[in-house]
Amino acid sequence: MELTEIPARGPSPSFDRAHLLLTFMVIGSSGTIGRGALAKRVGLGEGAVRTVLKRLRDGRYAQVDASGCHLTASGLSVYRALGRELSDPLRLDDSHLTLGRAQIALVVRGAARLVKKGLEQRDSAVRAGAVGATTYVVKRGKFVIPDGSNDCEADFPGPAWATLRSTLKPREGDAVVLCGSSDETSATLGALSAALTLI
Q: How far apart are CA 199 and CA 175, in angstroms?
């Protein structure tokens, strides 16, 4: 994804591609947001957020002025395209479908074919600070774990499946990443890190 391939200059930053993507998504969903509020939402210090914003400005995706941070016309175009590929994060706390108290689910459209066993997604999420992640694929209308359950709703019944279906509306061939951690920000960053392995 071109957004997360903006070249870095200078010392190694204190953030990763998932922070960059989350910052972009938060600005896009907010319309305009102040730098302090943005820093809290993405779990970075204000100095690191300034660096992320500089990257987004250098790529002509965002600008910062007296009213706050907002996307440029080209940033809005990328944000809309991203929305066709990746769902908004859905908070699903304390389900039995993955580890962690705070849980975030994302749909990656058409990515089921890229999921092998889900280990790459789990490892990427854990490196981002999550405690666990499970990747499901939608096959023949069912939630499937590669090399595992062919019908997760039947094998692991619970209310979370109905929430996933009604809110995220996964379609045939989609991948659904469910990531857990001790807090919402870490779970979201883990889910985005996992999703980035499929984009």
A: 11
Query: 17, 49, 84: which is the final residue of a domain?
Result: 84
Task: Write out the DSSP string of 123-169.
Answer: HHHHHTT-SEEEEEEEETTEEE-TTS-S-HHHHS--THHHHIIIII-
Mark whether 90 and 186 lie in a shared domain: yes
What is the span of the domain harbouring residue 160? 86-196
How many of the other CB atoms lie within 10 Å of CB of 41? 20
Q: Give dist(CA 110, CA 13) in Å, integer.
A: 32
Beta bridge partners of 134: 178
| pLDDT tens digit sequence for 11-40 | 344 578 999 999 999 999 999 999 999 999
13, 55: one domain: yes
Domain count along the chain: 2
What is the value of pTM for the model shown? Answer: 0.89
pLDDT in tens, 130-183: 999 999 999 999 999 998 999 999 999 999 999 999 999 999 999 999 999 999
